[in-house]
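Quick log. Single chain, no ligands specified.
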Amino acid sequence: MTPATGQILVIGRQGQLAQALLATGRDDLVCVGRPEADLANPDALAALISRYQPRLVLNAGGFTKVDLAESQEAEAFALNEAGPAALARLCQAAAIPLIHISTDCVFDGQKAAPYDAGDMARPLSVYGRSKLAGEQAVAQLCTAHLVVRVSWVFSEYADNFVRTMLKLAAGRDEITVVNDQIGYPTYCPDLAAGLLLMADQVLQPGFDQWGVYHLAGRQEIDRAAMAEAIFAESRVQGGPSAWVKGVATSDYPTPAARPMNARLDSRKVAEVFGVSLNDWNIGLKRAVGVLLGDEK
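-> predicted structure:
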């Protein structure tokens, strides 16, 4: 079948990534959320593909509330597995490349080194299992696919760790944060720019490097230290800050288990696409500034 022509269609509109993609100002990009783009409604997805006839689909939607997934497993799998599966079938039938966003939560966090894209996935949570199932469905049902795992994404958009820390600091003198979970913070606008660079290359004639990739920041930090960095930047910009009490994950239980090591090795994406992300501290300064401005 002749490949579709038209815009890059992003599934999702309210999340961090969709908002960051919209903010790039690309005139060939359209972000569509519910109800028009409903991952739980295959008929809606089919109508969406028929309406836009995109040249590429980027799935930035899904069930993203990690802890809530533990009590809403059916909905998590509907949005994170069944929805991507339906989307993959539609893209395969129309010869449209599909970029599907996934997560570090497909790993158990026990590896001593950063995770490579080819490492065995062993999710610890319902959320992680649902995202892995979605990855597998996309790979099985759509030949021209990229699964892109991301980690510790933050920005001035939507709900994320930076926004949460600033809100807490506005009303507390001390905040408890785990200090034994490590990762690579990823500034979402940089992530969005990287994904669009990948999309542009995917659309070039002869591209055949399909499969799983990691796209994340490069500077390692733990959650408590990241909170401290957020408050340090907030103080510089005249915003709230709090004392960070670092504790072990075992002393701060949550409904869903997180990988202790969430570091994603992005060398493969650098080698194939030439994409690497900026120092996350640059993005942090921007995100904090915007968020503090929103509060004024």
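The mean pLDDT is 95.
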